[in-house]
Design brief:
The protein is mainly alpha-helical. The protein contains twelve helices and two strands; from the N terminus they run E-E-H-H-H-H-H-H-H-H-H-H-H-H. The chain is globular, with a radius of gyration of 19 Å. This is Tetratricopeptide repeat-containing protein.
Length: 230
């Protein structure tokens, strides 16, 4: 059985040291290769199993922050984040949220900006108090925050607040246009744009739609309300 360890650093963080099943750099790379080859289920399983192995290393009664500037530790954090996305897309919002909560315990600085996805999870779970706590950690520079505030208000009151709606319509116009459009094709034009060095705002807006589309299948009323406000 291959061993792994948590090595403390002078910065009061820890580095994950290990080979084989604890070489998270290789596991992350392998999972991405699997996904690119169309083996999505296997890639998801690879990431989730890696998370379980990491979790077994972390003492339950001790605060552990992983060192972001250490390759293997960073890869471990990236695997947790990727697994949270996997479960979010499967509509398993509870498990996705649990993974993100663990991620933020291990990386309080939130280098991977998991707070935004956690806010989507909490909103999907109708955990409004938890949502109110985490939304403050999402930058107001991000269109996702504005979208979340609108969706939260709609879920609570059944209507869109005019001030938030106006802010979304003007400050994040490409996102408002995308989220009120009738079609959102992931066509060659989009893929070429989003894969480029400087993707357009329109492509970034479509990416957010595609990343959250599973929510709007479950809660189409919110999108209908946005379209009615065009």
């Amino acid at each position: 059985m291959q061993k792994a360890s948590l090595n403390p650093t002078p910065d009061q963080t820890f580095e994950v040291i290990g080979e084989g099943p604890y070489n998270f750099v290789k596991i992350l790379s392998r999972s991405r290769e699997m996904q690119a080859a169309g083996h999505v289920r296997e890639a998801c399983n690879e990431r989730f199993q890696a998370y379980h192995r990491l979790a077994e290393l972390i003492p339950e009664d001790e605060e552990v922050n992983l060192e972001w500037n250490h390759r293997n530790s960073r890869a471990a954090l990236e695997l947790i984040h990727a697994s949270a996305i996997d479960h979010f897309l499967l509509n398993d919002f509870e498990l996705s949220a649990a993974l993100l909560e663990r991620l933020l315990e291990l990386d309080p600085e939130d280098h991977l900006e998991g707070s935004e996805l956690l806010a989507f999870d909490y909103q999907a779970m109708d955990e409004q108090e938890l949502f109110d706590e985490v939304i403050n950690d999402v930058s107001d520079k991000y269109p996702g925050r504005q979208l979340l505030l609108l969706w939260s208000a709609y879920r609570r009151d059944g209507k869109l607040p005019e001030g938030e709606l106006q802010r979304f319509r003007t400050r994040f116009a490409p996102w408002f246009a995308e989220f009120t459009a009738d079609e959102h094709p992931a066509d060659e034009s989009y893929l070429s744009d989003i894969g480029g060095e400087h993707p357009s705002l329109g492509a970034q807006a479509r990416e957010l739609w595609l990343q959250t589309e599973n929510l709007w299948v479950l809660w189409p009323g919110f999108i209908d309300a946005l379209r009615a406000a065009r």
